[in-house]
Amino acid sequence: MRRFQHYACFDWSGQAVARPKGLALATIAAAPGAQPVLVRPPGGWSRAAALEWLLDLARAGTDILIGLDLSPTFPFIDADGYFPGWDHSPGDARELWALVDRLCSGDDHLAASSFVQHAEARRYFRHGKDDTGDRFGSLGTGRLRAVEHHQRKTRQANSASCFNLVGAAQVGKSSLTGMRVLNRLAGRIPIWPFDPVPQNGPVIVEIYTSIAARAAGIAGGRSKVRDAAGLHQALAALDTAAPAPLAAHDDHSTDAIITAAWLRHAARDPELWQTFWHPAALDDTIRRTEGWTFGVK
Question: What does pTM read for this prediction?
Answer without folding.
Answer: 0.96
